[in-house]
């Protein structure tokens, strides 16, 4: 802790001013005791210990130096800070002033130097500070950093205060009110105990959505710690399900900060009562007290047993027996535990009965409140209390991108989800949750999982069997962590590469997207759903219905997005041929859920104008459910109904009546349930519509076997990130590589060659995996386990023959060939839209690296990106060009084709444009003059005649490319691309005819 000299005359004046402010503030609040024991009690407290005086003793700096620094979602979200002299400063001469205008998130931190010992705050009651209020009502979050290596690798504990006052006020934050942060932890958690003996500083999170200013002064530690801060009583579970007649053993434990023995006795009084079970009939009441004497070791436990009884009823719903705990001398559990006597004898529990009959029985027994709960999905980090799962009868939870447990391990996920499922057992019918995640290219939220190439790379492989295998690997890893539901695959047909979700698409051609829908079988197994209860299968989601890949540039009204969530304006014929076609295929394959798009659909000629897909009854009820015969359930996108025009009641009513069955209301689950109940009560939503929605949801839960096995089956957990799964990802990475130029047969490389490697994406696993990896947007750097392209190249060739210079600043002489790996940094959704801080150009550093290396030697350029990169002006200096897409964690797959362990066989899943001005450009356009056409891809494979129509088309395609010799003209590119589309539809005769025309034009 930094102590400062306050003995100057100005310091004495500031203390007098501070004392006066304290007295005035306390008297105004009626809090200052004029006589009695208050002064004596305060005298027993240790002197306040300064943390920040803001006199300049702590500079603006970053780790590893001690300092104050800002942070935010983007550069605009960083507050502007300054130390400013003020006559009204509560302490000293200066205060910290700041200005902010935050749209995402932002704030500031004070971190202690990482090369010095951490500070010990454990002797104090809490931390306090002076804040200059403007009575805005805004909530400020204050966070402290406990344990770990340093301030950016510590556990985060948070509390908050509200700006509901005017002028200076001293805000006291006792350590007992700080809670462990569940939505984010920088290192995945340490011990989940607020130790206070290894502290690294604090952070303030500022409010979003309103431009404002603040002033702050004198952060200090105050008061004397008591044992209730350092000792805690906990139970080994919150819910104890038992079969009727069984007994529950509730284990009570006492733990302390630092695992030291308790100094004073801790007592726990307990008593049953107050639940839905009848005392004396359903269970034997218990009361009593357990004592942990002074000197008891941390972790000591005692057990309270609650015995249940069998009664004469043959069938009953679940009954609850709360065990009230009153703790003295330690912090009590966050909530009292409850014993639950399991439901039994009811028809819906009969595993031999048909699912349809089980569903009908259960729905007939449920209250409207219970049905509405089943239609509600909340973000797990937004739960106000875990007990809300039962009290709100929640049907589902999700982890949004980056919403992960601590620690973020497979074991951590299984433990977290089992805890949530346990809560659902405290409901009348013990209906299990269905937990969902966005595992869009492997179990991508989990550190150490196998990360596949994004869908654009899978589309480039042209291998439906491979697509199925990648789905199967993902399903196995997801289910092994207790998650039975995956919000994948994305079946969008990407028609404009300016879209930030382009890489989530298999390609621009609906025929290609349909061919890759074998991935659904990989996720779910057989189309009838009979495999869904397996420990390696998950419920799949076809998204986003419908037309999300066709939104017009500039049509988005979401924040700074330019194209994502915009308007798709098409004829009815184009809608059915391009955007609807993949969903018909998904329904045929038995996909269990469908998710509507954020975007709007404007069908030319229907005179309705744009309609938000979450409100489009004609498409969801009419097209999807009635015409296509979809029997699963429809889940909204993340807060998707909020974008429907009108008030919230209208949003709820419109979306449910349009055919949505479950609503993803990440934060607003209580408001949603209340609103939907009111809409049903008023008759604006019929109970028949509710029953249909709930029946669809419960059908999938029964198919998944969740009623019989709600908890994680971790039998396959040792396969997560294992060799067999990584082998599939490696194969996918190799087959996704598209060779676009190969002058002088510069590829494949030879292990004997001396190779100069450069570029921003050669040795960056985060860039290589892209968005939706560990966090929503993804990030650069070593974010998960895997092999970078550089590391793979060094394994594929003698280590001494591969040298790396990221910026190509190292000398370039003495090398046989250069490999420059360039491209994009991670993004997701509309954040990645071109025009929203992104473009399709290489960075200045990457362009320089290409110029330097390709100007000095034969060179190969690999673009690691989610979409084509505009490289035409440098193409003449490049000998080899490879579209590497976002290959995932297995860089070895890229090295396999570079060093001829496997041949290049990939084909472009999208058209590669010459310029941004050409966009959108797609196969079938009347005017079509690309840099490289859809379907293009050179090969290093020895080609034979093969057999069958498909082999005949492949051979003809390669001959057309060979004749063109890399010189792409509009005359041959158009029929060439159209031939690829026809071949994917099975029209091989038409494809050969188009290839003949292309050959003639080449």
From TrEMBL:
Enzyme Commission numbers on file: 3.2.1.21
Domain Calx-beta: 233-320
Catalyzed reactions: Hydrolysis of terminal, non-reducing beta-D-glucosyl residues with release of beta-D-glucose
The keyword Signal is annotated on this UniProt entry: yes
Domain Glycoside hydrolase family 3 N-terminal per the UniProt entry, residue ranges: 368-699
Signal sequence bounds: 1-42
Family membership: Belongs to the glycosyl hydrolase 3 family.
Protein name: beta-glucosidase
């Amino acid at each position: 802790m930094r102590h400062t000299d306050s003995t100057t005359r100005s310091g004495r004046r500031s203390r007098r001013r501070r004392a006066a402010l304290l007295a005035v503030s306390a008297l105004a609040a009626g809090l200052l005791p004029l006589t009695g024991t208050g002064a004596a009690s305060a005298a027993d407290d240790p002197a306040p210990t300064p943390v920040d005086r803001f006199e300049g003793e702590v500079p603006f700096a970053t780790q590893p130096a001690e300092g104050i620094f800002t942070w935010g979602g983007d550069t605009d979200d960083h507050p502007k800070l300054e130390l400013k002299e003020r006559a009204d400063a509560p302490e000293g001469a200066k205060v910290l002033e700041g200005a902010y205008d935050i749209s995402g998130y932002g704030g500031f931190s004070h971190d202690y130097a990482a090369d010095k010992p951490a500070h010990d705050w454990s002797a104090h009651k809490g931390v306090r500070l002076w804040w200059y209020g403007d009575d805005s009502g805004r909530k400020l979050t204050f966070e402290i950093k406990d344990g770990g290596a340093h301030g950016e690798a510590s556990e985060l504990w948070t509390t908050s205060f509200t700006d509901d006052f005017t002028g200076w006020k001293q805000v006291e934050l006792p350590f007992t009110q700080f809670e462990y942060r569940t939505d984010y932890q920088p290192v995945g958690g340490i011990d989940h105990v607020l130790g206070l003996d290894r502290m690294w500083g604090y952070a303030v999170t500022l409010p979003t959505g309103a431009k404002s200013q603040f002033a702050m002064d004198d952060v200090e530690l105050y008061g004397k710690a008591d044992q209730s801060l350092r000792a805690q009583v906990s139970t080994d579970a919150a819910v104890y399900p038992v079969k009727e007649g069984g007994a529950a053993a509730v284990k009570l434990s006492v733990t302390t900060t630092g695992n030291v023995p308790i100094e004073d006795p801790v007592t726990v009084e307990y008593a049953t009562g107050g639940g839905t079970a009848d005392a004396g009939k359903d269970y034997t009441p218990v009361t009593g007290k357990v004592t942990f004497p002074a000197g008891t070791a941390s972790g000591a436990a005692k057990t309270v047993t609650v015995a249940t009884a069998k009664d004469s009823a043959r069938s009953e719903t679940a009954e609850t027996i709360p065990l009230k705990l009153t703790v003295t001398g330690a912090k009590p559990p966050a909530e009292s535990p409850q014993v639950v006597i399991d439901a039994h004898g009811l028809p819906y529990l009969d595993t031999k009965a048909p699912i349809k009959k089980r569903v009908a029985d259960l729905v007939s027994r449920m209250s409207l409140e219970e049905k509405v709960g089943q239609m509600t999905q909340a973000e797990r980090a937004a739960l106000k209390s875990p007990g809300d799962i039962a009290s709100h009868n929640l049907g589902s939870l999700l982890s949004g991108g980056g919403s992960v447990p601590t620690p973020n391990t497979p074991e951590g996920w299984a433990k977290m989800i089992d805890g949530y499922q346990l809560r659902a057992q405290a409901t009348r019918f013990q209906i299990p949750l269905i937990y969902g995640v966005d595992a869009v290219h492997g179990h991508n939220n989990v550190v150490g999982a196998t990360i596949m190439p994004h869908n654009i790379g899978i589309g480039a492989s042209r291998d439906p069997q491979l697509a199925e295998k990648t789905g199967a690997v993902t399903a196995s890893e997801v289910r092994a962590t207790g998650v039975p539901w995956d919000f994948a695959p994305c079946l969008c047909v990407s028609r404009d590469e300016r879209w930030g979700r382009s890489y989530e698409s298999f390609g621009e051609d609906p025929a290609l997207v349909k061919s890759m829908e074998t991935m659904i079988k990989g996720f779910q197994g057989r189309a009838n759903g009979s495999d869904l209860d397996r420990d390696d299968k998950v419920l799949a989601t076809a998204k986003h219905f419908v037309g999300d890949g066709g939104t017009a540039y500039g049509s988005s009204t979401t924040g700074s997005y330019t194209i994502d969530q915009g308007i798709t304006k098409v004829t009815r014929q184009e809608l059915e041929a391009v955007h609807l076609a993949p969903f018909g295929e998904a329904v045929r394959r038995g996909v269990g859920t469908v998710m509507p798009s954020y975007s709007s659909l404007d069908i030319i000629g229907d005179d309705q104008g744009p309609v938000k897909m979450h409100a489009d009854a004609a498409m969801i009820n009419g097209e999807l459910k009635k015409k296509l015969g979809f029997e699963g359930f429809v889940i909204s996108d993340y807060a998707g109904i909020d974008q429907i025009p009108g008030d919230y009641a209208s949003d709820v009513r419109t979306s449910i009546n349009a055919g949505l069955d479950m609503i993803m209301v990440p934060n607003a689950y209580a408001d949603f349930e209340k609103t939907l109940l009111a809409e049903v009560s008023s008759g604006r939503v019929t109970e028949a519509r509710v029953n249909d929605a709930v029946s669809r949801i419960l059908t999938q839960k029964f198919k998944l076997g969740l009623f019989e096995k709600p908890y994680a089956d971790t039998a396959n957990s040792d396969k997560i990130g294992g060799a067999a799964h990584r082998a599939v990802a490696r194969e996918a990475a190799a087959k996704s590589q598209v060779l676009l130029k190969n002058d002088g047969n510069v590829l494949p490389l030879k292990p004997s060659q001396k190779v100069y490697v450069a570029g921003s994406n050669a040795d960056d696993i985060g860039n290589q995996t892209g968005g939706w990896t560990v966090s929503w947007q993804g990030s650069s750097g070593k974010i998960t386990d895997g092999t970078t392209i550089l590391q793979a190249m060094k394994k594929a060739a003698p280590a001494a023959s591969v040298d790396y210079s990221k910026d190509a600043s190292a000398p370039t002489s003495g090398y046989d060939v250069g490999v420059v790996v360039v491209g994009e940094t991670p993004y997701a959704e509309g954040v990645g839209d071109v025009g929203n801080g992104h473009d399709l150009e290489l960075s200045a550093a990457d362009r320089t690296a290409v110029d330097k290396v390709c100007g000095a030697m034969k060179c190969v350029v690999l673009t690691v990106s989610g979409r084509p990169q505009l490289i035409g002006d440098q193409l003449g200096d490049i000998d080899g060009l490879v579209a590497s897409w976002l290959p995932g964690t297995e860089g070895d797959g890229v090295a396999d084709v570079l060093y001829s362990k496997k041949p290049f066989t990939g084909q472009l899943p999208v058209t590669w444009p010459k310029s941004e001005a050409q966009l959108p450009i797609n196969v079938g356009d009347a005017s079509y003059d690309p840099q490289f056409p859809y379907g293009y891809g050179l090969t290093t494979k020895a080609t034979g005649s093969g057999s069958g129509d498909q082999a005949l088309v492949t051979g003809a395609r390669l001959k057309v490319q060979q004749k063109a010799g890399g010189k792409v003209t509009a005359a041959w590119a158009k029929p060439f691309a159209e031939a690829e589309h026809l071949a994917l539809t099975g029209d091989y005769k038409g494809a050969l005819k188009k290839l003949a025309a292309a050959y003639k034009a080449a």
